[in-house]
Specification:
With 779 residues, the protein is an alpha+beta fold. It is built from 24 helices and 28 strands. The chain has an 8-stranded antiparallel β-sheet. A 5-stranded antiparallel β-sheet has the order 2-1-5-4-3, sandwiched between helices. It has a 5-stranded antiparallel β-sheet with strand order 7-6-10-9-8, with helices on both faces.
């Protein structure tokens, strides 16, 4: 065997991966261990002839770069050796190697011997030691060993710092001496020395430990020693205690109903159960836009009020919705409700405070929802009560409306309304009265309910506002409400007389239709605050309906036969369209009559002499009295017009107040108007209303006369026989001169003014004539 063979055999026996590199870093020789490692890690070809440096350069690891750099340093003569420890883990195991490279020079040739040695076992052993030392240094644990005699042989670990002891200080001390005052710990040690593994939680010196006692046996099976580990779990235990306390607090909060109760319960429990003696809860006040203290602990120094200022941490945390700190004081947001402020001593206390704040936020949200539900429930009850009352009122209105429809006189209207109002519900007494213009006294007309001489006991006038609200209502034209007679603003006499009869609240409403006031309606209730907004609105509708019904009765009387009052006026008011036309166009205007249209509006017919119809229409179209105007016909120098008028026009105002315009001519000024009123009409009020609306109006004469024809029955016949459209066509034809001889308007012209064709006009007219003739001839 040659020397070379012997050397190769020696290399192959060495349990180290060895390769020889030439001056270019190419592998020129290896041993069996090197090749076997390559095959076991995925190499299929021998590595001889492969550039080791190229392999290192191509590897994507920092240690490969370091290896290549070290080998190149040896090949360049800058170093004689190089070593590197590196991980080389396989899919199945974790491994560590040490690479050593050394310069070998043979004559003029330079070689590098590279050896890789597996140091996994050593590395893991060192790691275990390092881990143990790290635990001892950093983890708050105590390692101890007790021999069979109960003497400490080892005591060390960073957990000793909290006890004030140093490593090894207890070595040699007996467990009997150490735990003389802690029988539970002493019992655990003795049980472990008897061979029983023990796990226990014990408290010593104010610190709570989880302790494991593990007995170690000798070859004879006897306990040789006990190895133990103590872990400081004081924070965990205190945290668990706090969590239990939080659970109790949460249950208490579930029983609270208001935000004030939530805050009071929380701060008391924070001090008593959570060791948070300086705690405050401040809630957001929407009215002031600030945080206001709601509850605060009292057992320690109060937290500074400056925390709640605009630049304090409380406002900052509330606005930003995150915790804010000022040294050891923390402010935790409670959503949109406010903030929880407390003093903390560490992370554990902060955790407890955050959990408590979360519970408070939830409880406040529930309290707010509960309050809203209660408010909604109260609102619903009020709405239901209001709905029931509204139904009662609507039924009362229907009864009143039926009574008004059946009433034929003003007395019947007033009597029916008074009796219907007091037939049910809270109204104890109702009456209707009118003002005596001569004395200013309010004279009762009709009443119903519990009166017991009330109207005789007091004198009601429109000049003394301390008597009954009825006088003030007539004077001001507005409803007057006294919600509580006992505390009302009127005289003691009125209060006394009202309370004697059980009146606790009252409402007086003027009976107004348009500009006319027909009296006053007074209603009294046996309950205070009866006349709320809904009640007043309904009564105002009733008062308007009453006034309308009285107006209708008065208007019907004006149209009925018998003795009437005839008033003659001079008029120069240019707001009246007829006066405006005559004055502006310097012409003669004559009113012919008025017809009701099927849509409820009225059409006035008038003639204008010696004036272009385009000028008349243009001027009338600009008048506030005119809705629409049409030329009906033109004959010689006279033109007939039909104008649809507003309710506020002069003619509309006459009709609304029961007056019938007989004649109306203008040109030259002043114009003359003659109107007819029923005998019992309030002429003075009527004239005052007209002159208020149309100042340039002067009453010239007033006279009584008999109407030659009673038209009341005829009005009823027309209403029964004819449709609205037929009556409109008949009236329009009449006032347009269609029946005159010679005719002033043709059927085509009259139909055009109505917006219908001549055949349609003829159809409605003949139908109306046929119905009237049938009634006349058959009767």
């Amino acid at each position: 065997m040659s020397r070379t063979d012997i050397e190769q055999l020696a290399l192959d026996v060495v349990p180290v991966n060895v390769a020889v590199l030439d001056e270019n870093g190419v592998v020129v020789a290896t041993n069996d261990a090197w090749e076997r490692f390559g095959r076991e890690n995925g190499l299929s070809e021998p590595t001889i002839g492969v550039s080791y440096l190229d392999v290192c350069d191509g590897a994507d690891e920092l240690t490969a770069d370091e290896a290549a750099t070290g080998i190149r340093a040896i090949l360049s003569g800058n170093r004689t050796d190089f070593s590197l420890e590196y991980p080389c883990h396989s899919p199945d195991e974790r491994r560590w190697f040490v690479m050593r490279a050394a310069d070998v020079t043979d004559d003029d040739n330079r070689y590098v011997v590279v050896a890789h040695m597996d140091v996994t076992e050593r590395h893991e052993s060192e790691s275990e030691v390092e881990r143990y030392e790290m635990i001892v240094r950093n983890v708050p644990v105590i390692f101890f060993v007790i021999d069979a005699d109960g003497t400490f042989q080892l005591v060390e670990g960073s957990g000793l710092e909290s006890t004030g002891l140093e490593d090894g200080e207890l070595v040699g001390e007996s467990i009997d001496d150490r735990y003389e005052d802690h029988p539970d710990i002493l019992e655990n040690c003795r049980r472990a020395l008897s061979g029983e593994p023990i796990q226990a939680t014990s408290e010593f010196g104010g610190i709570i430990y989880d302790v494991v006692y593990q007995p170690v046996f000798d070859s004879a099976g006897d306990v040789d020693r006990v190895i133990g580990v103590s872990v400081d779990v004081t924070r965990r235990e205190r945290h668990e205690e706090a969590l239990a306390a939080l659970s109790d607090i949460t249950r208490e909060l579930l029983e609270t109903e208001t935000s004030d109760e939530v805050c009071a319960v929380t701060v008391e429990a924070a001090e008593r159960l959570l060791s948070l003696p300086r705690t405050r809860i401040a809630l957001y006040d929407e009215s002031t836009g600030t945080l206001r203290t709601n509850a605060e602990t009292t057992g320690a120094e109060a937290l500074p009020d400056e925390l709640l200022d605009g630049d304090g941490i409380a406002w900052q945390s509330f606005i930003e919705n995150e915790a804010a700190f000022d040294d050891e004081i923390v402010s935790l947001p409670l959503g949109t409700h406010g903030v929880f402020i407390t003093e903390i001593t560490g992370n554990a206390t902060l955790d407890i405070a955050e959990l408590c704040a979360a519970a408070v936020e939830s409880a406040l949200g529930r309290a707010v929802r509960q309050r809203r539900l209660q408010e909604q429930d109260a609102t619903l009850r009020r709405q239901n009560a209001a709905l029931e009352r509204l139904n009662e009122l609507n039924e009362g209105i229907r009864r009143i409306d039926r009574a008004l429809v059946e009433a034929r006189t003003r007395e019947e209207i007033e009597s029916a309304v008074s009796s219907r109002l007091t037939s049910g519900g809270p109204y104890r007494f109702a009456w209707i009265g009118v003002e005596d213009p001569a004395t200013g006294r309010v004279v009762p007309h009709e009443s119903a309910g519990i009166e017991r001489g009330y109207l005789d006991a007091i004198s009601i006038t429109t000049t003394d506002e301390t008597t009954d609200p009825a006088g003030t209502a007539l004077k001001t034209g507005r409803a007057q409400v006294v919600q509580d007679v006992l505390r009302g603003p009127l005289s003691e006499q009125w209060q006394s007389e009202a309370l004697k009869r059980g009146y606790r609240s009252s409402c007086a409403l003027p009976l107004r239709y348009g500009d006319a006031v027909y009296g006053v309606l007074s209603v009294y209730s046996d309950q205070p605050r009866t006349f709320d907004e809904l009640e007043r609105a309904v009564l105002e509708d009733v008062s308007q309906t009453i006034a309308y019904a009285i107006n209708a009765v008065e208007s019907k009387k004006a149209l009925a036969g018998g003795e009437v009052v005839e008033l003659e006026f001079d008029i120069e008011d240019s707001t009246v369209v007829f006066v405006d036309i005559a004055e502006t166009l310097d012409c003669h205007v004559e009113f012919m009559g008025v017809a009701s249209k099927h849509d409820g509006t009225v059409t006035a017919f008038f003639t204008v002499d010696d004036t272009a119809s385009e000028d008349v229409r243009a001027l009338a179209s600009r008048s506030l009295e005119v809705i629409d105007i049409e030329r009906v016909s033109s004959r010689e120098d006279s033109t007939l017009f039909a104008a649809t008028l507003t309710d506020s026009s002069f003619v509309g105002t006459l009709l609304d107040h029961g007056a019938v315009p007989e004649t109306f001519t203008v040109g030259p000024l002043p114009g003359t108007v003659v109107v007819r009123l029923p005998m019992n009409a309030d002429v003075r009020t009527f004239v005052e209303v007209l002159q208020t609306r149309f100042p340039a109006l002067e009453l010239r004469s007033r006279r009584h006369r008999e109407r030659p024809v009673a038209s009341g029955d005829l009005d009823t016949v027309l209403a029964e026989l004819l449709t609205d459209r037929q009556l409109e066509v008949l009236e329009t034809a009449y006032y347009s001169g269609f029946f005159d001889s010679p005719r002033k308007s043709t059927g085509e012209e009259v139909g055009g003014s109505l917006g219908i064709s001549q055949p349609t006009f003829q159809h409605h007219l003949r139908a109306a004539e046929r119905k009237l003739l049938r009634r006349l001839l058959e009767s």
